[in-house]
Amino acid sequence: MLKYELKKYILKPSVIICLAVLLLVNLVKVLEIYCQGSGRQILFSGKGRIEISKDVLYEKYGGEITQEKIESLKAELAVAEQKLEEYGIIEEPIENTYTGYPYGDVNLIKDIISSYEYALLYTNTSNELSDRAAEKAAFYEGRNEYDKRESELYEYCFKGRAADSYINSDAYTNIFDYKFSTVISMLLIVLAVSPIVSKEYVFGYHNLIISSGKRKKVMHAKLFTAALFTVVMSFVVFLSDVFYWNQLYGLSGFGEPIYTLQEYALCPLDLNLFGALAVTYLLRLAILMMFTFLTTAISSFFKNDILSMTASIAAGFILVIGSEHLPGVFNPVLIIGTDSIFSEFSAVNIMGFPVFAFLVTLAEVIILTVIFAFITAKRGLCLLYTSD
């Protein structure tokens, strides 16, 4: 029965072609963002050498920080500063430089040194944050239990952290902040899933389902088909995100803690970078699964697949646009992009206990998913109860 539902609604040429087209659209969007950022100088300014030099320097100084690398960086900075003093600000590139320009070399090397300093001093930073939180917890003892617990959670999150590597953050920050692929995934869900109940009436298949006496099995197969499609499709789309950004910037240091990246110094979660990618995918899957079962629920209220598709598109539009007006943790779209989740400590008061805000939002999404699936099952069974 599952195989039949997959062939009927998912494994269709139209769905597969649409997936291929949307992956290309996703690539265009990634390139657009890239061109608006650091890629502009490569594609339009003719200064691609600057980007190449970044790669060369990262190959030399990326990864674990060693004393040898530190001494080499200092020597290279001294040479670059000497050339800058000798040549000044020049318009034409010169030989024996990374970027072609002494001031470019100085800036790039100083950026790496700054990243080194961040990593080497991060233990001190995290200990200061932890000690400060411990002092606050002691202050609130007997005064305010919630503030005490929140301070203790803050202390626990930042205590004993250490970073000893330099990792290029460009690909990671773009992946964590990227939301467009989730939107196009929603369009594909509408195409594949919105007719999953309503279309049974278009060709009169509901009469066959009723006469077979397998209404419950059919509805369960439909729900499982929709869920399976969402898991596989969302994973393919997320892999395309990772592949595209990796080709543009490069991904490395999967085993390093996420706070190795300076942008996520205050990340409350003790994850490595591979784990952060996995969490990003799972949170996007959660919101897409919610939308999938919202779509199946809508489908169960219609006997026309065109109307079902139209209503599902409208629901998706309301979800994306309307969510901008929902406060904080009640905004389900909040978990699509994990950049804000990884870059700040945010907790809410749940019965006197601090809980990470994104976990509250995730719980809301899961509850809505279950509700929509329940509505689909019950409403679908009602529609398949009597024949025309």
- Computed CA radius of gyration, to the nearest angstrom: 26 Å
Total helical elements = 16
Classify the helix fraction into a percent range: 55-70%
Gap between N and C termini, in Å?
23 Å
User: Which secondary-structure class do the elements indicate?
Assistant: mainly alpha
Query: Ranges with pLDDT <50 over ≥5 residues?
Result: 39-48
Q: Could you tell me the strand content as a percent range?
A: under 5%
- The order of strands across the largest sheet is 1-2
Largest sheet, in brief, is:
2 strands, antiparallel
Q: Give the overall silhouette.
A: flat
Q: What is the ordering of alpha helices and beta strands?
A: HHHHEHHHEHHHHHHHHEEH
User: If you average the pLDDT, what whole number results?
Assistant: 85
Let me know the number of strands: 4
Features:
single chain; 388 residues; mainly alpha; two-stranded antiparallel ribbon; 4 strands; flat
What does this structure look like?
It contains 16 helices and four strands. With 388 residues, it is mainly α. The chain has a two-stranded antiparallel sheet with strand order 1-2. It has a two-stranded antiparallel sheet with strand order 3-4. The chain is flat. About 3% of the residues have low confidence.
